[in-house]
Design brief:
Blueprint (H helix, E strand, L loop, with lengths): L1 H11 L7 H8 L23 E5 L3 E3 L4 E13 L9 E12 L5 E2 L4 E6 L6 E3 L10 E2 L4 E9 L7 E7 L6 E7 L2
Parallel strand pairs: 1-11
Antiparallel strand pairs: 2-3, 3-4, 4-9, 5-8, 6-10, 7-9, 10-11
Length: about 180
C-alpha cells in the first residue's frame, strides 16, 4: 500500500508544460540537403601519414615541432614474469622526444615499433625495463620512453624503428644495425 501511495505522489508531480512539445520540435527541425554528386564514393583509404627517415644515430625534426631520437638501443635476454610473457632475446629501445613547439604535446597515444630488415617484426613485451610514453610534454621539455621487443638473434641485425608520438602525426623512421 505504501508503495502505491509513493507511486501516485510521484506521478502527480509529473505535469506537462503547455506548448513544450511544440517548442522542442521546432528546435530540432533541420533541413536536409542532397549531395552534389549522389554517386560519388567517400574515402576508401586512410590519408597517408608523413614519414621522416634517419639513421639510428641521428634525430628527426618533425614539422609539428617535435624532435625524435633513439637515445639508446641494446640487447638483452628477458625473463617472463607475468602470464602471457615469454623468455628470450630482446631489443631494448629508448626513445627521446623533445618538444620545440610553442604548445604542450600529448604523447599518450605514442606507438613505437621495430622490424628487422628481413621482415621479422619485433614483438612488444612488458617484460624487462618497459616504460612507454605517457602524459604531455611541455614546450622545451624532453621525455623518454623505453620499449622492449622480442627478436630472435638481435645482435648486429639491421632494423627499422618507427616512432609515432601521437595518432595522426608524422612518423619518424630510424634504420640501421643493432650495436
Amino acid at each position: 500500500m505504501t508503495g502505491a501511495i509513493a507511486l501516485a505522489l510521484g506521478l502527480s508531480a509529473c505535469t506537462a508544460v503547455p506548448g513544450a512539445s511544440e517548442q522542442f520540435s521546432e528546435q530540432i527541425t533541420t533541413t536536409w540537403t542532397a549531395p552534389a554528386d549522389p554517386t560519388a564514393e567517400g574515402p576508401t583509404a586512410a590519408p597517408e601519414v608523413p614519414k621522416e627517415s634517419s639513421d639510428l644515430d641521428s634525430e628527426v625534426a618533425l614539422s609539428t615541432g617535435m624532435t625524435v631520437s633513439i637515445a639508446s638501443m641494446t640487447t638483452m635476454a628477458v625473463t617472463a614474469e607475468t602470464p602471457g610473457e615469454v623468455d628470450g632475446s630482446a631489443v631494448v629501445v629508448t626513445v627521446a622526444l623533445h618538444n620545440t613547439s610553442d604548445s604542450p604535446q600529448s604523447i599518450d597515444s605514442a606507438v613505437v615499433m621495430l622490424e628487422a630488415a628481413d621482415g621479422q617484426v619485433g614483438i612488444a613485451t612488458t617484460a624487462g625495463p618497459n616504460q612507454p610514453f605517457a602524459g604531455t610534454i611541455d614546450p622545451g621539455d624532453t621525455a623518454t620512453g623505453v620499449y622492449v621487443f622480442m627478436l630472435d638473434d638481435p645482435q648486429g641485425r639491421n632494423v627499422t624503428v618507427s616512432v609515432n608520438y601521437s595518432a595522426g602525426e608524422p612518423i619518424a623512421l630510424f634504420a640501421g644495425p643493432i650495436h
